[in-house]
Amino acid sequence: MKARIRVVVLNYKTADLTVACLRSIEGEVVARGDTEVVVTDNASGDGSVEKISAAIAENGWTWATVMAMPANGGFAYGNNAGVRPVLGTPECPQYFLLLNPDTEARGLVIGPLFDFLERHPEAGIAGSRLEDPDGTIQRSAFRFHSVLGELDMGLRLGVITDLLADHVVAPAAPDVARETDWVSGASFMVRARVFDEVGLMDEAYFLYFEETDFMFRAKKRGWSCWYVPESRVMHYMGAATQVGDPRKHMKRRPGYWFESRRRYFVKSLGPAGALAADVAFVGGLVSWRLRALLQKKDVRDPPQFLRDFVRNSVLVKGAKIPPAK
């Protein structure tokens, strides 16, 4: 029987997390009987393929397979590998669920997203509610970035956030299903027709902003994106990417984050808009740093973040971006 849903789990040196993720969805996958799971491994080189394959065999998970990739091409590259082989073929499922390895199901994950998309044919993408291990709800229903949104992110001033409420990129997660601009890449389901019309994720991104770019393109083609809190996922934020939880002190932000950000902002806002967004963010951040210094507040930014941001801004690096792969 042809699967109606394909779950793609991308692994890179997180075999234990991936196995735990598979174990957490086992009950739902078996009960549904219409779901297959493909684990793509981005050339981990640490025995991940063997370890995950052994777990699949030992547990009798006939619904899961492992696809070893020849290189670590990033998030879009690894997830696309789980979608591309069946897209446009008679075996193509109706939906694809892209699920991070650093997630575990809390109750049903697949069913609520599938049911929502079945009831709403105009919706192309549906994302899960993400939770910390202690149940704290993570912000995972977002607005597209804008100049005013970047100013708010830099300033971190409550009165300004209130005034710019319609531009805040990461508002508090709603309690009910709601249309949003984009959802977290940790757990989201895509209608196969969206891939057919919009294309796969842009593999010129290594990590970060690729799902935002994809959902921006989908919206331009008329597909809506929804946050569906009935689909609940525990997310160990930063465990798969090694970038860290933005609510805590972090390691220095890697260069690929800045490259991805610049690529997305130029693609979505244009060169002038991307430059304006950079200036707004830096101006706001400098203001926040001065305020924090005077008020002796803790600055919870990655080390050398302001310097790295300026060095990688459109003003310094320019607005030229390589073509999508």
Q: What does this molecule look like?
A:
The protein is of the alpha/beta class. The protein has helices at 15-32, 48-59, 75-83, 110-119, 147-155, 158-163, 192-198, 210-220, 255-295, 305-311, 314-317; strands at residues 5-11, 35-41, 64-68, 95-99, 103-105, 123-131, 141-142, 178-180, 182-183, 187-191, 224-235. Strand 1 (5-11), helix 1 (15-32) and strand 2 form a beta-alpha-beta unit. The radius of gyration is 20 Å and the shape is globular. 42% of the residues are buried.
Short recap of the structure:
The protein is of the alpha/beta class.
Radius of gyration, whole Å: 20 Å
- The global form is globular
What is the CATH class of the largest domain? Alpha Beta
Largest sheet: 9 strands, mixed
Query: At CATH's second level, what is the architecture of the largest domain?
Result: Alpha-Beta Complex
Approximate helicity band: 40-55%
Number of alpha- plus pi-helical segments: 11
Q: Uncertain runs with pLDDT below 50, 5 residues or more?
A: none
Query: Topology as H/E string?
Result: EHEHEHEEHEEHHEEEHHEHHH
Helix and strand arrangement:
Layout: E1 5-11, H1 15-32, E2 35-41, H2 48-59, E3 64-68, H3 75-83, E4 95-99, E5 103-105, H4 110-119, E6 123-131, E7 141-142, H5 147-155, H6 158-163, E8 178-180, E9 182-183, E10 187-191, H7 192-198, H8 210-220, E11 224-235, H9 255-295, H10 305-311, H11 314-317
Parallel strand pairs: 1-2, 1-4, 2-3, 6-11
Antiparallel strand pairs: 4-10, 5-11, 6-10, 7-9, 8-11
Helix pairs in contact: 1-2, 5-9, 8-9, 9-10
